[in-house]
Amino acid sequence: MKKEWTSFLPGIFWTLLVAVLLTLPGSAFPEEDWLDKIWFDKWVHIGLFAAFVVIWSWGFKRSHTAASRLPAVFLLLAILSAIYGTGMEFVQKYWVTNRSFDGGDILADLAGAILGYFFSRRVYIKK
Prior knowledge:
By secondary structure, the chain is mostly helical. The protein has six helices and no strands.
């Protein structure tokens, strides 16, 4: 049982790290025009939420979740990831200094969750 619980430590760590990164005050970020031109912020969101799904999926795979249930678990993780990202946008809007709500970030979070879902299905589920 102990080994199964420890399988989720990376997911717990990643969830907390994402929360910290998304609640940093806006003044903590550099003002660079070239980063805006390559949509750096959106790529960061895609990466954060793709990793969110992949890391949690790894935890469920390692915890010996029944193979027949993994596709549904991975899909649920992607949905929860997108909900978490949307919730964090509201946190930024109402509680974080110099941060605002950005619908583009929500779309990037969703894209990352979808990418993480498909990657997890391909890598963690044996065909």
